[in-house]
Amino acid sequence: MTTENAEATETAAVAEQGAHVAPETASSKKGATPKKGAPKGQKSAKGGKPKATAAATPKKTTPAKKAHKAKKTAKAQEAAGPREGSKKAQVVALLQRKNGATLAEISEQFGWKAWTVRGFMAGAMKKAGYKVESFKSDKGERTYRINP
Length: 148
Prior knowledge:
three-stranded antiparallel β-sheet
C-alpha cells in the first residue's frame, strides 16, 4: 500500500477535523408516515389456527337456548317488583300508602336533594313501569302516590 492510497482511504472514512458535516447514516426502510386523520390499512391476522372446510368439521350444538331461558326468568323476576330492601322498594312502599309520601319525607329518609327525588320519580319509577301520581296536598307540599 502506498501513502497515497492510505491517505485516500483515511479521508473517505473520517471527515477533517473542524468540519461540521454529519456522518452519513444508513437509509431507513420506513415509508412516509400518514397524516393523523388518514384511514389505516387492513391489519393482517396474527397466528391463529387455519380454518377447516365445512365437510371436515362436524356441527356442534350450542347452549344458546338455555341462556335465552335464563334471560326470560330474570326479566320475569324484574317485572315482579324491585329487589327487597333496595331504595326503590322502600320508595315504592312509601308511595303505596293511602296518602302517598311528600317530597320532604322521601328526601329526609334517604338523604336526597329535592331534584334527586324528582329525577327518581320521573326516571327510575317510570322505567320500572310505575304510574306515579304527583299532586299538591292541602298544606301545599308536593306529594307522590302510586295507585294500586
